[in-house]
Amino acid sequence: MNQLDQIKQYTEKLNLTFTIDDCKALLHHMAEFEIVDYKTAVWDYLDAYEGISHSADPEYWKDEEDL
Q1: Which of 10, 50, 57, 66 is the most buried (most CB within 10 A)?
Q2: What is the DSSP string of 5-66?
Q3: Spatial separation of the C-alpha atoms in residues 61 and 5, rounded to whole Å
Q4: What is the tens place of the pLDDT at every residue in 37-61?
């Protein structure tokens, strides 16, 4: 599965509506900020622009709580 598909699948898991163009923009965001993990890129975007609760994916954030 390529990163575009992974981003689309992950945002659907979070019950978010991301178009293919949104996912492509996120890929550009990843390249610009040298983010290698698509989940990190999604949350970087969401934290900056959307304010979605981290409880939307407690599995991702369980290891991040200590930061």
Answers
A1: 10
A2: HHHHHHHHHTT----HHHHHHHHHHHHHTT---HHHHHHHHIIIII---GGG-HHHHTTTTT
A3: 21
A4: 999 999 888 877 666 766 777 787 7
Supply the DSSP symbol for 2: -
C-alpha to C-alpha distance for 3 and 48, rounded to whole angstroms: 21
In this prediction, residues 6-20 reach a mean pLDDT of: 91
- What is the helix (H) or strand (E) element at residue 3, kind and residue range? helix 3-13
CA nearest neighbour of 41 among 55, 54, 56, 26: 26
Give Dmax (Cα) for the chain: 33
